[in-house]
Amino acid sequence: MLHILGAGAAHPAGSISNEFLVRCQSAFDASWLEHQIGINSRATVLPLDYILESGNLDTSLSYKVATASPTDLSFSAAQQALQRAGISPEQVGLVIGAGETPVETTPSEGQRLAGRFGLRIPAFDVCSGMESLPLHLDQLRHWRPEALPDYVLLVYSSCPTTRVNYKQGREGALFGDGAGALVISPRIGGKLQVAASAVWKAAPHQRILSVDTYAHLGVDFAAMFELAASANFHTAKLALQSLPTPTKLTFIPAQLSAKCAQRFKELGAGSYGAVHVQSAQNGCCLGASFAIALSDLWDGLSGAAQDLLLVSAGLGHNNAWVQLRVGA
Amino acid sequence: MLHILGMGCSFPSTEVSNKFLEDLQVGTNAEWILDKIGIEKRLSSLPIEYIRDTRNQQPRKARSLASHKAFDLGVLAAEDALRKAGIDASKIGMLVCNCCTPELTVPTEGQRIADHLGVPGVAYEVFTACPAFALHLDFLNNFSEGTLPEYILCLSSATLTHCVNYNDRSDGAIWGDGAAAWVISPKHKGKLRVVETHFTADPTRNQAVVVDTFGFFHQDGRAVRDFSVRQTVRLVKRLEEKFNLDWSKDIFIGHQANRTMLEQITTNRNIPAENHWHNVSFIGNQAGAGAPATLAMHWNKIRPGMRIVVAVVGAGLSWGSVLLEESESGVA
After folding, report:
1. Which residues in chain B are contacts of A211 at CB distance < 8 A?
2. Contact B265, B254 (CB under 8 A)
3. Which of A108, A125, A135 to mutate to test the interface with B (most CBs of B within 10 A)?
4. Domain boundary at B141, B162, B185, which?
């Protein structure tokens, strides 16, 4: 059984407020941002004057001006995860990374991050967009325990603001930059146990989210709220059918915005348990979102038995859910 | 136990010859390239006029002009592998992909290829660039018995000529474009069984080989060359000692980066030329596709009882090996 011993997160200091977005382009409406998106601000590695002047129309300039790289953020997140796990970097035996906005397509994020810690260990990436973390936990749960070292570091880094067009389109309302990290072990106990999981290919559906390697990312806003929320809720119900009745349940659904989580709750999830809404201050950090959510919840996880149910559907190629048991 | 049921490969058709590179007048000549790198020509999906006229100084433009992108080559290689394995894409329960030159990161290249082929299983990237063949098989070999689907499709595809600065006298001589695919099964027997897998890395040297997202490939050539020869020899020696390899019968396939380097390795290990399979000298370095594409191209030469060592090194810096054994004849 896999255990999660530590979780960490990091965001850049820069912040894009709703007022700033309104200044970027007239299509943004302060009321729409507040009531339809539910995000107050988004963390960004981009200087605000760069965004205002250029709109980030040429994404190749973004990393030249960025205040941090995705690996800078994942390094900070990993440091927090290791500190919470109570282990030193030298005790890590494997690093697996994921990221959607790399500065370099080679080497992998896992190798860049392991190199920052001075580690000479196996490292590579396993990438699947929004559902990368649930996929990692599900796949590693099926590895032979002896194939895993005592401690594995999983890192997720995303700087989607470097791929946003701030002069056109509404994607700027959603995305923020951040990184998350987990320390897991197949044999050493931790605060969370990976109790159950499933991953399967999503049914063909509208492509709600796409992230180009070079160019701007895109979101199908018309499909986003209803399709993604209903897909998440359907996946959550499938998970609940195969699990014993949880004692105290918190859903962590994949979400592009707080309103997506709200819709997920309204569809019926709220009758089963609490729904974690991603920070209204940092924006959607793509594949780093789940690790960031776990890090945000980490210090409050203790004591009485409770379950976290990670649910990812409608925003990627694969659907996934993972049951994490607290206090076992 | 994993078996490889079929393998495929795919390449574009534009030939970039040593003479062409010499005529670019960037400080290289055909004789030097052949002597130091051992490559006679390489295959690119870029128009030859585009390379000559622009030297690919704006690599983001390359994608729009190319005859093939990594996705296209990956699809062709996958279809080739499925055909040779005798199974339909609808039977694939998992697809893992390695691509250094993706068009999109969401969905990933492997996911796009899976959608195009009609693969019903999960799909995701398992990425380390050049040593992908070893990583994929080692990654899958770690799953507990009964947890993998019946058929798995592995892919490595890259169009690294899109990331080459053709004003650089070395980089233009190295790269070709290509894709390879292999169908494996933990349940059904195939022509090759996977005897042993190994993958590891030294990430402290990860900046020795880099492909900038918005720019060019670059590497510390001398350090990477020394690492490649030394590490491949170590990989081969370990397998020789553990499995008592016999180079009069067994086959060696190295990372297809540089034929001159490969010949240093085969000389060091006394591997005869006829048992050294390679394709780099007429395709160029195809990153993670090179070694599996070589195996795919020699598929019909696999003889009963034959053992094949695939030892691959590259970006990360990472490296790994796979020992395969012919298994259909019952000789092994």
Report:
1. 104-106
2. yes
3. A108
4. B185
Q: What are the start-end ranges of the E strands in chain B?
A: 3-10, 14-17, 41-44, 94-99, 104-106, 122-127, 152-159, 177-185, 192-201, 209-212, 217-219, 251-254, 307-314, 318-326
The answer as to whether B84 is a domain residue is: yes
Are residue B134 and residue B207 in the same domain, yes or no?
no
Question: How high is the pLDDT of residue A223?
Answer: 81
Q: What is the mean pLDDT of residues B158-183?
A: 95
pLDDT tens for B179-197 read 999 999 999 999 999 999 9
More confident residue, B127 or A33: B127
pLDDT at A246: 66
| Judgement on whether residues B12 and B157 belong to the same structural domain of the protein | yes
Which among B201, B207, B213 has CB closest to A123? B201
pLDDT at B331: 57
Higher pLDDT, A244 or A143: A143
Task: Give the count of domains, chain B.
Answer: 2
Name chain B contacts of A127, Cβ cutoff 8 Å: 105, 108, 124-125, 127
CA dihedral sign, ordered A174, A130, B72, B253: positive
The pLDDT of residue B85: 97
| CA–CA min distance B317, chain A (Å) | 8
pTM over 0.95, yes/no: yes
Band (pLDDT 50/70/90 cuts) for residue A314 is confident
Same domain, B62 and B165: yes
Segment B147-172 shows an average pLDDT of: 95
Residue whose tokens read 């994993």 = B2
Element at B74 (helix H, strand E): helix B70-85
Q: Find the domain containing B72 and state its range.
A: 3-185
Parts of chain A belonging to CATH 3.40.47.10: 3-185, 192-326
Chain A residues whose beta carbon lies within 8 Å of the beta carbon of residue B142: 143-144, 147-148
Strand partners, A319: A200
**Of A139, A108, A112, nearest in space to A125 by CA:** A108
Determine contact: A59 vs chain B, CB below 8 A.
yes
CB contact at 8 A, B71 and B177: no
Please state which CATH class domain A3-185 belongs to: alpha beta
Ramachandran angles phi, psi of B109, nearest 5°: -60, -45
Q: How far apart are CA B128 and CA B200, in angstroms?
A: 10
pLDDT in tens, B140-153: 999 999 999 999 99
Question: Is the same domain home to B85 and B217?
Answer: no
Q: Which residues contact B171 (CB under 8 A, 6 or more apart)?
A: B164, B165, B216, B217, B218
Topology of the domain comprising A192-326 = Peroxisomal Thiolase; Chain A, domain 1 (3.40.47)
> Looking at the predicted structure, is the pLDDT value of residue A204 above 80?
no
Q: Is residue A105 over pLDDT 90? A: yes
**Would B332 be classed as within a structural domain?**
no
- Asked if B200 and A101 come within 8 Å (Cβ–Cβ), the reply is no
The interface pTM score, or ipTM, of the predicted complex is 0.97
Domain contains B139: yes
Q: Contact, A113 vs A123, CB < 8 A? A: yes
The pLDDT of A131-152, averaged and rounded, is: 98
Does some domain include residue B18? yes
pLDDT band at B32 (very low <50, low <70, confident <90, very high): very high
